[in-house]
TrEMBL record:
The keyword Transport applies. Residues 5-237 form the ABC transporter domain. It comes from the Bacteria. The keyword Transcription regulation does not apply. InterPro entries: AAA+_ATPase, ABC_transporter-like_ATP-bd, ABC_transporter-like_CS, Metal_Ion_Import_ABC, P-loop_NTPase. CDD domains: ABC_Metallic_Cations. Keywords: ATP-binding, Nucleotide-binding, Transport. GO terms for molecular function: ATP binding. Belongs to the ABC transporter superfamily. This is Iron/zinc/copper transport system ATP-binding protein. SUPFAM superfamilies: P-loop containing nucleoside triphosphate hydrolases (SSF52540). The lineage of its organism: Bacteria, Bacillati, Bacillota, Bacilli, Bacillales.
Length: 247
């Protein structure tokens, strides 16, 4: 049986300096996968390399036996908020409507049904009252909800979110994680670059632990252990113990 996503021998370098190397993992459909590791570990680079947004030096990536290019329309990607131009003059409902474009094809305009679907996605994240606001007017948590709505509008099978919980309010974080859990129950596969170790066990089924190379990948209860975490974070267990990390 092909896994929903297979990554084999992934290597990425910038200007001749290795950023990540020898990363291998595979996961079945219907999992919420956390990607964790210290700052500068290569988490975002790995995600972008898997999606073909950053060149790979080596490695193979497949989605149910197909290349990322073949399933591009089935993939929704939410980048870090710091990588988005919030001054771009676009209102919230039009931002979400962009999520329908991959399925429309070239030179086709969104129809009434597409606009209704975009509004439905906006309602799902609780942002329908802001439909006519400029995206730059919103708070960090509101912006993140809107970009999740855009991803939902895409009707994707695979969701990749890069640090979605950074700099947002608790209410928005709760809304987002509950929607991601619902997507998982629908059989979708979700990858989330994450930094708060205290919430790992509540949020994820599976983990990828990385620090330049792969430290561990698999069920949370197998990877989220003090001895394995110490290999990545190089931090004594006395510091980690306050984060709910098991022995």
């Amino acid at each position: 049986m092909n896994q929903t996503i297979d990554v084999e021998n992934l290597h990425v370098s910038y200007y001749g300096k290795s950023v990540i190397h020898d990363v291998n993992f595979s996961f079945e459909p219907g999992n919420l996968v956390g990607i964790i590791g210290p700052n500068g570990a290569g988490k975002s680079t790995m995600m972008k390399a898997v999606l073909g947004l950053t060149p790979r030096d080596a490695g193979n990536v497949s989605f149910i036996g197909q290349s990322v290019e073949a399933v591009r329309k089935k993939i929704a990607y939410v980048p870090q908020r710091s990588n988005i131009d919030w001054d771009f003059p676009i209102i919230v409902k039009d931002t979400v409507l962009l999520g329908t474009y991959p399925k429309l094809g070239l030179f086709r305009r969104p129809k009434k049904a597409d606009k209704a679907w975009a509004l439905q996605c906006l309602e799902k994240v609780g942002m329908e009252d802001f439909a006519h606001n400029q995206i730059g007017e919103l708070s960090g948590g509101q912006q993140q909800r809107v970009f999740l709505a855009r991803a939902l509008a895409q009707q994707a099978d695979y969701f990749f979110l890069d640090e979605p919980f950074v700099g947002i309010d608790v209410s928005s974080e709760n809304v987002i994680i509950n929607i991601l859990k619902d997507l998982k129950e629908e059989g979708k596969t979700i990858f989330v670059v994450h930094h708060d170790l205290g919430k790992v066990e509540d949020y994820f089924d599976e983990l990828i632990l990385i620090n330049k190379n792969l430290i561990g990948a698999g069920p949370v209860n197998e990877v989220f252990k003090a001895d394995i975490l110490q290999q990545a974070y190089q931090t004594p267990f006395s510091v980690m113990s306050g984060m709910g990390v098991g022995v």
